[in-house]
């Protein structure tokens, strides 16, 4: 157990350490939010970036008051952020699956069209009948993806906003305990 010790006129403070990994676009929000729970960036170890994520090192006084309540609020915040990330991922999950399925179906029609034309004797009418939906199956996925993703984004936007409001309430509670 680390405690405060006066040595040479300076007080020793023991720290808790935490490393979090966040998307680059959410780094500022994580830093601001964790401050509400008594955490501060560790000046001795700078953030490290890996592709689209950033690893942040934080420190907090081990003797902070209301540590148990701050930890509970922090866990609630982390659960809310996990829900937001899951909701944001769901914007494109179904749209991607449907678009890929449409592309594969288009490819199957085009393959059938090629087999029809290379048959002996060539079946030109069947080639055309299979080629039209095949080309549509290749042209459609991008527009389909955009439309489905936009519709899903509209559906979940209020849910995400609700989670951000909940996070702000959690941070207000934590900030009141820290200060």
What is the element layout, followed by pairings?
Elements: E1 6-7, E2 10-11, E3 15-23, H1 27-35, E4 40-41, E5 48-50, E6 53-61, H2 67-118, H3 124-178
Antiparallel strand pairs: 1-2, 3-6, 4-6, 5-6
Helix pairs in contact: 2-3
Structural key phrases:
179 residues, 2 domains, 4-stranded antiparallel beta sheet, two-stranded antiparallel ribbon, 6 strands, elongated, disordered N terminus
Q: How would you explain this protein's 3D organization?
A:
By secondary structure, this protein is of the alpha+beta class. It folds into two domains: 1-64; 65-179, no CATH class. The chain is 65% helix and 15% strand. The protein has helices at 27-35, 67-118, 124-178; strands at 6-7, 10-11, 15-23, 40-41, 48-50, 53-61. Strands 3, 4, 5 and 6 form a four-stranded antiparallel sheet that branches. It has a two-stranded antiparallel sheet with strand order 1-2. A hairpin with a 2-residue loop joins β5 (48-50) and β6. α2 runs antiparallel to α3. The longest helix is centred in the last third of the chain and has 55 residues, at 124-178. The chain is elongated. The two termini are 24 Å apart. Mean pLDDT is 91; it is low at 1-7.
């Amino acid at each position: 157990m680390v405690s405060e010790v006066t040595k040479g006129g300076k007080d020793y403070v023991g720290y808790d350490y935490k490393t979090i990994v966040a998307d680059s676009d959410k780094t500022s929000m994580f830093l601001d939010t964790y401050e509400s729970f008594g955490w501060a960036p560790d000046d001795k170890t700078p953030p490290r970036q890996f592709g689209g994520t950033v690893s942040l090192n934080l420190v907090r006084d081990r003797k902070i008051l209301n540590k148990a309540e701050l930890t509970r609020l922090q866990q609630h915040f982390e659960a809310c952020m996990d829900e937001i990330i899951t909701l944001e991922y769901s914007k494109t999950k179904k749209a991607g699956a449907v678009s890929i399925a449409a592309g594969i179906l288009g490819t199957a029609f085009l393959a059938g069209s090629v087999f029809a034309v290379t048959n002996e004797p060539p079946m030109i009418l069947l080639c055309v009948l299979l080629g039209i939906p095949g080309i549509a199956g290749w042209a459609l996925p991008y527009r389909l993806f955009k439309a489905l993703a936009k519709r899903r984004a509209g559906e979940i936007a209020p849910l995400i906003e609700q989670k951000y409001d909940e996070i702000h309430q959690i941070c207000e509670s934590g900030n009141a305990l820290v200060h």
